[in-house]
Amino acid sequence: MNILSLFVLIPVVMLLGLWIARNLNQVRGVMVIGSSFLLALSVYLTVAFIQARQNGDTSAMLFTYSTPWFKPLNIAYSTGVDGISVVMLLLSSIIVFTGTFASWQLKPMTKEYFLWFTLLSTGVYGFFICTDLFTMFMFYEVALIPMYLLIGVWGSGQKEYAAMKLTLMLMGGSALLIIGILGIYYFSGATTMNITEIAAMHNIPVDIQKVFFPFIFIGFGVLGALFPFHTWSPDGHASAPTAVSMLHAGVLMKLGGYGCFRIAMYLLPEAAHELSWIFLILTTISVVYGALSACVQTDLKYINAYSSVSHCGLVLFALLMMTKTACTGAILQMLSHGLMTALFFALIGMIYGRTHTRDIRKLGGLMKIMPFLSVGYVIAGLANLGLPGFSGFIAEMTIFVGSFENNDVFHRTCTIIACTSIVVTAVYILRVVGKILFEKVADPHYEQLTDATWDERFSVCCLIFCVAGLGMAPLWVSNVINGGVSSVLSVINF
């Protein structure tokens, strides 16, 4: 069996195990064993990929496998990974593993919650391993559909509104995607849906590319919080349960940036060059607007949600710069933001579970009451604002240096404007940290609250280790993704 298919098979087995489970301990056991296997498999895949590259395998995609699925439309179950896919699978496994422990105490309907959570992760894994356009789209939809129930049933606040808004906007983006995918298929000759084969043919007329590039880029950009299609994101994040927010912001939004790079820009390169200026303006707005919006929020989840709009906008911004350094920074930013925002949402969920409020005006003195969670929040904040030694610094500096390599006025002006988000990020992060952690205790009842439990400490420590590890030893990740970035850019910068 192809090793990549295990990333889909294991979650399917987990779904069966959860269906059979009869009590809470069995449900937890299935999730811990399954997520541990997925994490171990992603680590093994990363090591195997590095070894294959070191042994001289220069193929664009490794561990490939293909079997026909629907021959009339040349649809196949095709899998393969490059360095970008490998690190995305590793990120997904880390978030699923830590999200399991972050949801350890979740009630009610724990079994049903984990069933939908596992189905969501199945779609994410399938999307990153597939190289067939239609199969990728199918897994993309599998990843989106469970979000409605996970937020609508287990969420908080205006959960029904947030779930419906998220579903309608993402389904609208999906409608654009299917139009773009079918357009690429038919105008490339209608002989294959394999991404690498279509890219190699390079036979889609420029005028046709200009028609379908906006469909694909906006379709994926909706999930990547592209301005002005980002409005679903803050409401969805604020209402989602903790682990869903972790997976949603940490991994699901990365499908947007990955799809824009792998499909829109890779398969429609001429249109990417000619229309990039439009989307570059929109992403620059996303970066600055998201940071400024976070400054005026009073809800911890909304602050982090608007921060995610800014940081995910930075991913699309870097990709559109189309330099190797900037695109490498974009992938590093996907990893960094995925880990940081998962840590943030985990900590916010743990604080909310004790104080029953996310309003920073009603919080204070938490450093004295729950020091472990508070220190974790400080570390997450410092990583978010780009402190050297953490993942945020490496990713953002790589992006801005790579973006400035474009020596025209337009690109450099956009880069300078985007750089202002660093200062704004420091403002809202330090404001929140000072308010909720170091001011006097806002409510006498908070004095009776407890600090993190063992499962929460384990989840937080794993994420902190990854955030610090990527910040202090980023070179190996850069080496892994280098080949994938170069391969895609060789087609884009034809």
Q: What tags apply to this protein structure?
A:
2 strands; NADH_UbQ_OxRdtase; 76% helix; 494 residues; ND/Mrp_TM; transmembrane helix; membrane; mainly alpha; transmembrane; single chain; 20 helices
What are the SSEs and their pairings?
Layout: H1 6-20, H2 24-54, E1 62-70, E2 75-81, H3 83-102, H4 110-129, H5 133-154, H6 159-187, H7 195-201, H8 206-223, H9 232-239, H10 242-252, H11 254-267, H12 269-295, H13 300-321, H14 324-355, H15 366-369, H16 371-384, H17 391-403, H18 409-438, H19 454-472, H20 475-492
Antiparallel strand pairs: 1-2
Organism: Xylanibacter muris
Transmembrane segments: 6-24, 31-52, 75-101, 113-131, 166-187, 211-230, 275-296, 303-322, 334-352, 372-395, 415-438, 458-477
Subcellular location: Endomembrane system; Membrane
Can you walk through the features of this model?
By secondary structure, this protein is mainly α. The chain has one domain (3-492). Helix content is 76%, strand content 3%. A two-stranded antiparallel ribbon has the order 1-2. Helix 11 (254-267) runs parallel beside helix 20 (475-492) and helix 12 (269-295) packs parallel to helix 18. The longest helix is centred in the C-terminal third of the chain and has 32 residues, at 324-355. It is globular, with a radius of gyration of 21 Å. The two termini are 36 Å apart. The mean pLDDT is 86.
Compute the number of helices.
20
Q: What is the 3D form?
A: globular
What is the H-and-E element order?
A: HHEEHHHHHHHHHHHHHHHHHH
Main β-sheet: number of strands, strand sense, barrel status? Answer: 2 strands, antiparallel
For the residues shown, what is the average pLDDT? 86
Coarse structural class: mainly alpha
Number of domains: 1
Strand order of the largest sheet: 1-2
SS strand fraction: under 5%
* Whole-angstrom Rg: 21 Å
**Percent of residues in helices:** over 70%
Termini gap: 36 Å
